[in-house]
């Protein structure tokens, strides 16, 4: 679904924001993209969604060549930016209709599809409200609707739950997981929350200093030795918690780099993927909540149950210490 | 075909927003309307309504379409623009749909001014007035495209002070309040360097029922050229990565 090789971006002035990213994402996966501020996360996401033109490397996104056919890519992907993107004074239904029609849908089918999506996201009946009159969780689900209205095969979510309360967050997770099953979506998401990566993603990529430094399932990365937070600290030399953005959207724009990790350390962890011993050890983790653990916190049906044994769900209690 | 359809879709969406906030239309035309009502009767003692109203049309064009970039600043900040940029719609459609909607707003405002002008005793020939409206529509497209481009270039903080200050000399130099033929040489020369003088003089000729004049030809040529340049610049800015 996504294949990149040496994807890079340097900005005028010699800043190499992304220095050669290789990604492979298969259809139907939920992939988490983690990294500290300034690591190149947002830049990579913006390249993959055609908002930024790469300065090097090649990429195929949703079956189209990113550089040769950006409009073809745009037709097949959905993108939900960090701040969403709704005019606070316009009824969300109108905006959704415009959005759907710009994907070539006619008014009738567009309305039908909008009704269907809103029902799935528990938003039926809210179309005539302006975005400014919605709660944070509702607005975020509307943002999700924008990304889904044209039935894309690949959905990009940039920090989908930043600024949401734990309950709305769990609810959104449940929706994303269910949409994956029902719409056969592939989801690529960036996040600052390790709990989110742990709960949602089948596989994780960790980016630091503009390059991928680790890759694997959450269980593989943890390797039985600790939490994702420890792993993150050992890989990047930084704790994800330290530079987590404040609740305000837009505050996690790439900033100056923090601690400089020794490259030897980064390389060691990056290339040395956890061996077979590490993979299975996820089973030994103490008392993981079963399916439904997350769903119980919100209105989401089914909950975020792990589909694969190693995939973990996170109890609401583990969030936001 | 795609281009027309998408432009139309964006136009309808933006126009619906404009019509929903009718106060915006009224507010945009308020200042020229005040000139018309409180200064017009005074001016009419030495000049004519047919001279003043075209001047106020240029004023409203600069104040309304010229400041249309406020909308794009707002949309850029709320993320609407970025959301639209990830759809397959061509960027020129996102610009044109928006700009055409600003132009329609300007036409509504122009009709409002002319209606009040007629009520005060303006005598302008209807065919000339209709031709002038076509010119105003095109001027609206130019100014709105330029305003959008400037807004995306200089950012929200600078846009308001720069543009609201910038339009004042442009209005004065067009000869909106008194014909530039009365100006001293240097001011006349300065005025000739701005496009709006030519548009204004053409509109005055059209109002007076003089259609086939060099002044009208010059006004039409300047307006067409201006819109071509402004739309090209606007499209280029909309196509840019970080716009």
UniProtKB/TrEMBL annotation, chain A:
Residues 239-321 are annotated as: Disordered. Residues 269-283, 290-305 have a biased composition (Gly residues). Pfam families: ABC_tran (PF00005). Keywords: Antibiotic resistance, ATP-binding, Nucleotide-binding, Transport. Residues 2-234 form the ABC transporter domain. Transmembrane segments: none annotated. The keyword Ribonucleoprotein does not apply. It comes from the Bacteria. One of its GO terms (biological process) is response to antibiotic. InterPro entries: AAA+_ATPase, ABC_transporter-like_ATP-bd, ABC_transporter_ATP-binding, P-loop_NTPase. It is a peripheral membrane protein. It is found in: Cell membrane. Belongs to the ABC transporter superfamily. This is ABC transporter domain-containing protein.
